[in-house]
Amino acid sequence: MSTIYLGEFEELMLTMVGILKEEAYGNAIVEEVKAQLERKVNLSAVHVTLYRLEDKGLLKSFMGGATNERGGRRKRYFELTSAGVKVLQSLQEQRMKLWKLVPELKFSI
Amino acid sequence: MHQPPKFIQSLLAKICPEYLWEGIAGDLEEQFYYDIEELGYKRAKQNYFWNAVKFIRPEILLRNKFKLKINNTIMITNYIKIAGRHMARRKLFTFINAFGLSIGLAFALLIYLYIQDEHSFDKFHANAERIYRVEEYAYRAWDPDPENPYIQSPWLQTPFAPTVKEELAEVEFAARFDTGEEYVVKSGKKIFTEPITFTDPDFFKMFSFPIVSGNQNEFLKEKHHAIITEAMAKKYFNDVDPLGATLLIDIDGEKEFEVVGVMQNPPANSSLYFDILVNQTHRFNYERSLANWSSFNTPTFVQLRKGADYAQFFDNLQGIRDKYMSERLARSKERYSIPDDVTQFEYHTTRLDNIHLNNNMYWHKVSDPQYSYILGALALLITIIAAINYISLALTTSTLRSTEVGVRKSIGASKNQLISQFAVESVVLVFVSLILGVLLMYLFLPTFNDFTGKAIELNFLNLLEIAGFAVLISLAIGLLAGAYPAFFLSSFSPTRVLKGGASTKVRAGIARPLVLLQFTLSTTLIISAFVMYQQMKYITTKDLGFKKDQVLVVPIQLGWTEEANLAVERVRNNLQNEPDIVSVAGTTSSFNRGWSRYGYEINGENKKAYVWAVDPSYINAMGIELLEGRNFSASIPSDTTALIVNEALVKDMGWDTPLDEYLNWREDTASLGYKVIGVVKDYHFRSLESEIEPMFLSMDKYEIGYYTTLLIKLKAGSLPGALDKVEEAFNESIPDKPFEYTFLDEDIQSQYASFERWMNIMGLATIFALLISGLGLFGLAGINVVNRMKEIGIRKVFGAPVSSIFILVNKQFVLMALIAFIIAAPLASYLMNNWWLGDFQFKIEMGWPIYVVSFLIGLTVALLTVTYHGIRAARLNPTSTLRYE
C-alpha cells in the first residue's frame, strides 16, 4: 500500500468519486468537473481512468437500477474502497506537508 | 424523439467489452440528451460521434480481446528462452534459416529502395503538381509509318513560352529549359568545358531547387547574369564566395557573366539537371528563332495557376497551334499530300512528376516503368522463395521436437499454447533475420547503386519507411511461414510420440512443389543472366567494321567555325613526326556523339542517309575498308564536293557502278549533285541496336559542318608518352581551350550502359535466388532423409553400400533439377527473345551451350546442397533408427 503513485488525472477522478459519493458515475463526474473546475474532460478518458483505478483496487463499481432517460440503460456507479480512501487521505497529508515546506509562500510582502 | 447515431453506436458495441458496454452506452446517451437541450440536435450528434470515437482506445480494446494476465507474460518469456535454446542447439539449421530469410529480406529492401527512388523523382518541387512539360506530336510527313505516325518530342519553338504566358490565362509561369550543350568556361587560370543551360527568370519561381546564396527574384533579370551550382562554385572559386565574381563563357564568342546566385546541386532524383544557368537570349540566333514557329529547338515548362482548369488549358494549347502554325501546316499538308483526316500537329503535356517514368520521350534520366515492376516481381519471388525455405526447414527439424511436444501435451499444454509457442519461435527467428537483413542491405547498397546507376542514400525519412516495410514483411513471413509448422507440430499425438519414439512422418506435401517452383525460377534466372552476359560480350567484341582500339577522342572546343578546321591542321602538323601517333583525323562528330541525317528525293522517292564531314585521314585512322574507288585527297581540289558512300547506300539506290554516279543530296539544288569517288564496306557507325543504314562521308565542311572532334590513332603500347605528346600539340595548336579526351572504345561501350546495369541486376538476383533455393533444397533433402530413416536403416542392415544409399537419397533431386530445367528453358528463351534481345538488331542465337551450362549450374547447386544429407544418411548408424522396432 505504501507505494501507489497516481497521475494527476487519476487523482482527480479518485477525488471526484469521493465528492460525488452515491452519485459517482461517468457522466456525473464529467459534469461535476465542469461545474467545480471549469474544465472539460473527455468521457472516454474518465471511463478508462475509472477502470484503471478499479484495477488498482482503489475503486469498485456496481450497476445501478434501470432508468428511463438513458435508453433504459443502467448506470455503472463507482465508490471508493478502503484502500482508495487511504490513498486519498495520504495524498492530502503529503500535499500539506510539502506545502508547509515552501518558504516563499509564507506571505512576506 | 431524437436518437443517437446508430452506426457508431453499433460499432462501439462490437469492440467494447460486454460487461462495460451498458455503463458506457448509457453515459454517452445521457450526454447526448443534455447536448440536445443545450446545443441542438446537430451539434449533439457530432459530439456523440466524437465522444464515441474516443472510446476506441487500447485500454478498452485490450480489455475486450486479450486480457493480459501476468501468467501469460511469464509463458512468453519462457517461449523466447526455449526458442533461444533450441536455436543454439541446432546452430546449422538456425543459421541456414536466418541467413536465407535475411538474404531474401535484404534483396526485397534494396528493390524497395529502388522503386521508392524511381517514384520519388521530381516530387520535391512544391509546385510539382502544377508544372507541366509541353511536348509536340508531329505527323511524320516525310516517312509515314502507320504503326507510329507521330514523332513525339519535348522540343518546342522558341516563341512558345513567351506567347503562352501572355495569351493563356491558365499559365502562371513559363520557362524554356535548354540544357546539355557544352561550352568553354573560364575563371582566372581555371578553364574547363561545362554544359550550359539556357533558361528564363521564371525558372526560379517554378522549381524548388534550394538557393544557397543570392536573391532568386533577381536571377537572370539581366542578360549578363549567371547562376551556378555549389559544385561549380567549388570548382571555379574554391571556398571563396562567388557572388559578384566573373565567369568567361565562350558562347558564340567569349562573354563575361556575373555570378548572381548559387543553387544546391540538383539531387539524384531530379529529371532536370544543370551546372550553370544563363539567360535564354544568349542562345545561338535567339532573335531569329524568336520569330520562328517552324523550328523546334528548346524544351519548355509551364506552371498553371492554382485552380486552373487543365482541360481548358489543353484546348487553348491547340488554339496556339491554330493561331501561329496553321499557314505552315497547310503548306506542308499540300506538299506531302497528307490526308485530310490526319492531325498534323498537337501540343501535349507531361506533368513534372511523371517525366521520369515517361520513356516515350528522350530526356535526362528517363526510365522504363517496366523495370520497377519487373524488379518488384523479382523481389517478391525471392521473398516467397525464402519463406518457402522457412517452412520446409521447420518441418525437417520438427521430428526432433516431437518428444518435447509430447511431454508438454501430457502435462496439460493446450493446442493453442503450443501454437503460440511455435509462433513466438518463428517471430523471434524472423526478427533475428530482419536485423541481419537490414545489415546486409546496408552492406550491399553501394554495390547496388553501382549496378543500377543510382545514388540512393539512407536518410532518416527513407530509413523510417524501410523500417516500416521491413517489419511488415517480416511479420507477414513470420506468421505465414510459421503457421504451418506450428499447426503441424501441435497436432502430434502425445501417446504416439511418447510411446513409439520419433516416428512421425513429415509431410513434404507442400514443400516439394514449392521447392520445384523455387528451382524453376532460379534456373530461369540463370539462363537469362547467361544470355545477357553472352549478348554483352557479343556487342563489345563484335567486329564493327572499324578499329576502335587505341583511338583518342578529343573535342576541339572551337564551335562550328572555320577556325576549328584550321586547328585540326595545326594539330596534325604538330604530331606529324611523332612515331607513337599513327594518324590524326578531324570529323563533325565522333561515333556516339550525335549524327546528322539528310533526306533527299530521287525520282520522286524519299531517301535518307547519315552523313559525316571527314578529312582524308579519317578512313585510315579508323581502319575502315575501302571496297571500290579511292579515298579523299587533300591535293585534288574537286574532292571537296566528292562523296564516299557505304554499301547500304549503294544498295538503297540500286546502283550497279557506283563510281559513275552522282548523289544529289541537297533537294534544292538543280545540278547533278556530288560525285561518288569511293565505296566503303558497311561499318557500325551507330550502336548495335540499329541496322547499318545508308551513309556517306564528305569533305564539304561548308555544307555539312566544321570539325568538332579529333580522332587520334595511337600506336599500340605507347599510351602514356603518346598522350603527353597529344596534349602538348593540342595546347600549342588550340591555346586557351581545355584538353579533354576519352577513348573511343570506352565511348562505344558506354552506349550499352543501361543494358549492362540491367545485366548486373539480373546477375545479383540470380545469385540471391540460387543461394536461397539452394537452402530450400537443403531443407527438402533433410525432410527426405528424415522420412526414410527406417528404410535406410533396414537397407544398411541388409548390407547396402554407402554409395547406393547416397544415390537413393539424391536421385530425386537430380530429377527435380531436370524438371525445373525443362520448365525453365522455354520460359527463359521466350522472355529473352521477346524482351531483352528484341532491342538489338545484332544479337546472339540462344544456342545449346547456354542451356547446357545453365543446366549444369543448376544441377551442381542441387547436388552440392543435398550432399550433406546424403552423406549423413549414408553414414547413419542403423541401431539409432531401428532401436524401437
Automatic annotation (TrEMBL), chain A:
It comes from the Bacteria. Residues 19-89 form the Transcription regulator PadR N-terminal domain. This is Helix-turn-helix transcriptional regulator. Pfam families: PadR (PF03551).
Automatic annotation (TrEMBL), chain B:
The lineage of its organism: Bacteria, Pseudomonadati, Bacteroidota, Cytophagia, Cytophagales. One of its GO terms (molecular function) is transmembrane transporter activity. It is a multi-pass membrane protein. This is ABC transporter permease. It comes from the Bacteria. Residues 377-489, 765-878 form the ABC3 transporter permease C-terminal domain. The chain crosses the membrane at residues 92-115, 371-397, 418-444, 464-489, 510-533, 758-786, 813-836, 848-868. GO terms for cellular component: plasma membrane. It holds the Pfam family FtsX. Keywords: Cell membrane, Membrane, Transmembrane, Transmembrane helix. It is found in: Cell membrane. Its main location: membrane. Residues 94-318, 521-720 form the MacB-like periplasmic core domain.
